[in-house]
Amino acid sequence: MATFGRLRKQTGTPREDRAPAARPRRGFPWYLSLPVTLAAIVAVFLAGAQAGLFPSLPNPFAQRTVDRSQPVLLQSIQQMKRFTGAQGNFQVIVDLDHEAAFLPSQLLGHRTLYVAAGTVDAYVDLSGLDPSAITVSADRRTVAVTIPHAQLAPPSIDLNRSYVYLQQRGLFDRIGDFFGSNPGNQQQVEQLAVQKIGQAAQDTALVAKAEDSTRDMLSGLLRSTGFENVTVTLA
């Protein structure tokens, strides 16, 4: 009996009858929880500032435009002695397509649709009038003036009314634009628009309108100075 009692005392309660001890839960490391908390606070603050919830605080995403242009330099002054008698307003759609010889346009090449608006002036140059071009009668009542033919001025593109309507670029062109811009393409379409507008102006009645306006202007001016009979002819 004594041996059985010692054996039972040593054996004790079976392992399956004892409840396992609860392990303490490991908390989030402080050196990781602190950056996460700060990031969450900053995110809430920036979202509120972006939504305008903090009107007294500046918006960190607000942008401003700073003009750092240099002062305008006057290069020359030219005295104009011509009368602009007519002006034509033009619009042209330039479709400029650069295609590769052996590659599809999806890989190499670019196409630009540019809507250009511009004006062309028609003028009469009065700076070269010879004294013999003006004939005045003895009684100063009749005058005859001979003027040169009208000319067309170079076209002028109105940038406020001109814009790029469509621009398609291949994959290689996009990669090239990522590393550097290509201002030459914009300049090329603008030069082509100027050329087309200039050619179209030659097929209009701008020159004739400018000559008629110049004759009317000179006739009215000379009559206002006392001449009764005024004749203005073209050279």
Question: Strand-and-helix sequence, N→C?
Answer: HHEEEEEEEHHHE
Instruction: Please give the radius of gyration in angstroms.
Output: 43 Å
Question: How much beta, percentage-wise?
Answer: 25-35%
What class would the helix/strand composition place it in? alpha+beta
State the helix count. 5
Principal-axis shape = elongated
Number of strands: 8
Give start-end ranges of low-pLDDT stretches. Answer: none
Mean pLDDT: 77
Largest sheet: 5 strands, antiparallel
Helix content: 25-40%
CA-CA gap between termini: 152 Å
How would you portray this structure in words?
By secondary structure, the chain is α+β, with helices and mostly antiparallel strands. Helices cover 34% and strands 26% of the residues. It is built from five helices and eight strands, in the order H-H-E-E-E-E-E-E-E-H-H-H-E. The strands form two sheets. Strands 1, 2, 5, 6 and 7 form a five-stranded antiparallel sheet that branches. A three-stranded mixed sheet has the order 3-4-8, with helices on one face. The radius of gyration is 43 Å and the shape is elongated. The mean pLDDT is 77.
